[in-house]
């Protein structure tokens, strides 16, 4: 399967695309990669998405560990190998146990999650699979994370779903992270 929307040659970038790419390069990501390569075709959309993602990835009310867990659940739900390849190592570094990561990769509910991890996992699974969240799971999220945390969790699921849709459609190539592959195909 070939990439449909690979890199745009530098000489072919519009002024708006150059400015949008530079904003991403100057931010915490440091480079245009993954979903931002196909999104560069719509520079204004890319910039709005990037700003949302910067908040959700780096500053959400959930913190990095739980945000990365939500990203992995979303990547698995969408069979998104690029998200998985980028975020599985980050999740491990942030403290998500290898057994939890492996269970998510296998589409199993991890048996050894901490309480906050279980709430995030169950919230994300319900939201992706049923398109809503049950009263019990929502109440659990509200009790642990408050309203902002619950909304940020919805935002993480939605944002990484957008990126998964973009990369699945663009057939974005999986980066070589030097880590064992695992996860979605």
Automatic annotation (TrEMBL):
Keywords: Lyase. It comes from the Bacteria. Gene3D superfamilies: AhpD-like (1.20.1290.10). GO terms for molecular function: 4-carboxymuconolactone decarboxylase activity. Its EC number is 4.1.1.44. It is an enzyme of class 4 (lyase). InterPro entries: AhpD-like (IPR029032). PANTHER family: 4-CARBOXYMUCONOLACTONE DECARBOXYLASE FAMILY PROTEIN (AFU_ORTHOLOGUE AFUA_6G11590). This is 4-carboxymuconolactone decarboxylase. It comes from Massilia aurea.
